[in-house]
Every structure is written in structure tokens, then in C-alpha cells.
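Weekly modeling sync, notes
Attendees: S.R. (lead), two postdocs, one rotation student

Agenda item 3: backlog of single-chain predictions. S.R. asked that every request posted to the team notebook include the full sequence so nobody has to chase files. The rotation student volunteered to paste the first one in as an example of the format we agreed on. Action items at the bottom.

Example entry:
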Amino acid sequence: MRKLHCCSVIFSLFFFLNACTSDTPNIEPPADSELSGLDGASQLSDDWLGATYDAPGNWTEDKGTELIKYTAPEDDSFMVITVVKGANDAEQAALQAWHKVSPDFAREVRFINDEVADNGWQQQTFIEYESVISEERAFFALVLRKDSDWHIVLVDSSLAVLGKRSSQLSSLANSYTLQGFEVEDVSGNLPHQLDTQKVEALLSFVDESAKKLQVPGAGIAIYQNGKVAYEGGVGVKNIQTNEPVDKDTLFAVASNTKGMTTLLLAKLVEMGKLDWNDKVTDHYPEFKLGSQETTDKVLIRHLVCACTGLPRKDMTWIFNSGPNAPSVMAVEDLANVEPTSDFGELYQYNNQMPAVAGLIAGHILYPDMELGAAYDKAMQEFIFDPLQMKSTTFSFEKALAGNVAKPYAIGIEFESVEVEQTATEGFNLTLVPYRPSGGAFSSSSDMLKYLINELRVGVSPDGKRLFAETPLLERRVPGVSSGKDEYYGMGLSTRKIAGVEFIEHGGSLAGYQSQFIVIPSANVAAVILTNSDEGYYLASAFQRKLIELLYDATPKAGEQVEVDVLEQQKLHASRFDEIDMPGDAAILANLAKHYESDTLGDVWISNVDGETIFNPGVWTTALTTKTNSDGSTSVVVLNPILYGMELVIGQTDSGKRTLTLIDMQHSYVFTEVTAE
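Predicted structure, as returned to the notebook:
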């Protein structure tokens, strides 16, 4: 899963901040692929522009003499490309660009940070501008400099389009290249052996970077050419006890569960119990996705391809779920939801769909069992046991009783704070009914066994075939484009760094971030598991550093970490500056004690030791206040996992108090519950 701060505009742009450092050439999807992800994008260049980029497919193009404008099919969002000469700095250059589009543009800068310059540019800067959450819009700029010429990409977008078409925006940004610049490609180099010296260099880099990024610990495992090069970790699993991370330390691997779930599906294909192109309702008639027409189109592969146009619906499980909730919730969540784009048109990540895929796989094997229990049994029997993943589990109780890394996040004081996690309480327990999408706990040693199976295409190290080759490889076929040089398959992604193609996936849960990389050309598999939200940065740098050590790619990983450290600080400061600390006592005291939403259920407001507490069930958070520039007032979540999430205060026509939560493609209203 991506970061969960999806209700803050800053974090809804997080993909853009991190995507703008790509240095990778294109991965071509297979010819005649039904889900090719080719949405009409093409490399464009104009003589006055002096740059090339991937134009967004299906957007309306309007070329002028000084700018090129792309308007989204929804007609409420646009991107503009232009060049400004002679500006003093990136902020001034961006403002001059905005004035070409809208002479009255006067929004304040909310966040600005220099990124690692790439694609021939000498400077690369990202800028986000102020907006009010009730606007449901975002405004930002990517500024690229070559000598005294400033190339600017402006985005003025509704949150709905931003969430729906993020892959197109990041593709354009990442492909924007100085004309004539040769993108680095080291794929022709022979990969080095990861000897003791290189492994130590990688571990030293991770250790130093983790300290800079406030990541307490990381589990790491590496395999090359038939041998385990390293299993262990850096840092600590518990800040208070200073216990070190080792090869068997458990972490929540979050969305890296998805690839294991699709491996179970591949096993069922091998066994003849299903086909990737079977209709879902043939195996589970109770399945429904929006209308009957849409339901009838959904195949097994569509549940795990992120290609059906179904937007994220994370709030439904964040607010409604818990450790005792039935797994059938994942199925019920989809019943009244329609895709917002056509099948195969756009990459849209959704966690309920793969959860349903795993539950159906378990149901096929054990039809008389409860859905979740059947899935657990199927994974144990057909995945974990054959791969000898002896520590991997879906049981919070089992994981937390053993050698587990405690989860951490950055708190209000910009320091690592422990994320609440017990067998009965805590944010991560909301994922229990949806565990095929992200509920596994695993160690670096166990995860490496799973990755070795991927690298060896289903053959164990002792030569025994565990999984049939064809259905296993089907999961990797590039499907819909998830960004520049990235394609999503079925629970796995394909990507390139410096021309080197690899298979990967990441995972994000409260206080945990993970990433794996399988590089067939180097016969390498590696995984990093971290116990911090800030591990997002570390995992990306780990991938880059590994490619550098293997192929002598240009050293950039260290520079990227330095940029990320500064980004961390600026993002935290920008969020903190916007809120009231302490909150407005009168506003907080006037909140209702009980609210309900037709979709997200009940929340209760109480005062505990002088703090206003927001409680939707399994997790709680303190609240503060924020006064918006349009005169509206919001309450803001202080829980480090959802830090910055806003709920706009309002009322109904009948005078009942309301709180409105806005995410990328949804708006949820909590209405006061009055005593009868």
C-alpha cells in the first residue's frame, strides 16, 4: 500500500515528489496486450521547447507559441508546459509560468524542495501551493533548469483527477528530458558478484541512511547465483530495549502480501481449479462490483491487476474494520462501487480487489470454511510450507508474541514515536479482514525464500519444481502502466533503473515499509523490511544502491537520501505550521459526542486528560484545529499515521453538526447523532 496520509494534499502528491527522480528508459509492454497500459502517450518535442516528454494519452492538447496545455478528459484539470528565461530562482520562474496561464495567480507556496536533478537538468525543484481541502484541488509545479532556461510543468487538478490519473502525471514528469541527453543505460554491463566488500558497502549505506531518516531498524536479505549473500539487519527492533534486528525479526510486509496471494492463484491455475480468464462469479457467485454489467466483465486476473479503474477505498476499512470483523467485508465493500475508468485504461490501486482474490482462492480449496480461515489454511499449505517460510504468519497474536519489530512513525516533535500495536488494538488491525492484500508478518530470511522462488521461476534450491512456470510468469506480464517505465502485472511490478529491468513491489502499513527487488539479469534477489513510516525513503535508496553496486551505475543513492532528509523536515514543518497548537478550545468543545456516516460508521468524540479524542473503534487519535483561508474550520488528526488528515466542520440544513472527510475520489460526511 502507498502512504496512508491520503487526505492531506501534500501526501496525495507524494507519488509526484518521489517519482520525479526517475532516470529510467522505457519498458515496452508486450505486443497486442489487452491491458497494455498504452493510453496514447507519445514522445513529443517542439523546437522552442528543447525537451522531450511522454504526453498524457486522452488529454486534449492545445499548442501555443509559448506553452503547451493538456486538459484532462474530465475537463476540470490541466497541465501546462512552458519555458521561462532569466528568472532568479525556481519559485520566481514557476510564478512567471503561472502568470502566463492565469495573470491573477497568487497562491502562497506551501512546500518547496530541490530534488536530485536528472535527465540532463542542472536543477530540479518541486513546488506545492496552498489550497483548502474543501476546494478538492491541488496546485503544484515541477521546475527544471538548464543554464538560464527554466522549464516548468504546472498542474492545476481536482483531487479526483489527481487520484485517478496520477500515473499519467508522473509519466510526463519523469520523462521530461533535455533534448539530446542520453539517459543512463548500464544494462550491457556484466553484473558484479556481491562479495563481502560490496555487501558491507550496502549494509553500511543502509545503516547510515536509516539513522539520517530516523528509521530504527531494517531487516535485509540478499541472494545471488545460488547462494545467500547476506541475511540479517541493521539498527534495532525496539528503541527502548535496543534489541538488534536479525534475520528472523518479523515485520508487517503489507502489500508485499499481494504477490504471495497471486502465487496462490497461480498454484490453483496449475492445479486446474481456475483460469486467469475465468469470470469471478463462476467461482464466487456472491461477488458484485457495482452494476450487473460491470460484475459480468470481471475476470480473476482483474482482481489483482490494478487495471479495472476501481479507485482506492481505504477509508472504508480504516474506519469500519477490526480484528473481529468478518473477511466477507472485503467482498461487501465492492458491491456498490463502480470503476471510474475503463478496464485497462488507467492504473488505479485498490486493496479490496486483491483481498477478494485471495479469499476466493481459499474458498475454492476449502468451500466449507469461513473465507478468512480458508485463505489462511490455503496460504500455509500451498505457499508458506512448500517455501519453508516457517515464521511467516497472518496472526497478530503469534507475531507480536515473538521476535517482532515494533512499528514507529515521526511524531509532532519530529522524532520517532511508537505506533500502537497489540493483538486487540491498533491501526494495523483494521487490515485483518483484508489480509490477502497486506496482512502478513514475515522476516527478511523468510521473504528471501519467497523471492528465490521468483528468481528460480518455481524451482527450489535443491532442484525440486514447486510451482509451474507458465502461471507463475503470467503474474509478471506488464499490464497497465503505473508510471514512467513502470508496469503493473498481477501483484508484481516491472521497472527499470539505469536500463536494468527487474521485478519489484513495495508494502506500506502503519509503522512498516518494505520493498523487494528481483533482478534476473544479475541472478539477484533482495529484500528490505523496515519498522518506520520513513522506511519509504530508505527502501527506494536501497534499490538504487544495489543497482549501483552491481552495474557501476552513477552514484545517486547517497544524494537521494540527503534530499529525502530535507524533504522530511520540510514536509513536517509545513504541516505543523498550518495547525493550531494547542487547538481552539471553543471549537473542540463544540464538537458533537457522536457522529455517524452511512459508509464509514460511527465515531465518538471525548475529552481525555485535556485532549480531544477521536475514536472510530479500533484506533484513536487526538485532534487539533485549523482555520482555513476560505473561512471554514477543520479538525486535524494528530495520530502520526494519519497526521494532517482534515475533517471539515459544518452542519446540515436541520442544524445537526457534521464532519466531512475528503480523500482523492470520495467525500464522506459524518452527521451528529442525537439522543432520541
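Discussion: group reviewed the output briefly. Confidence is low (pLDDT under 50) at residues 1-42.
Action items: rotation student to repeat for the remaining queue; S.R. to check formatting next week.
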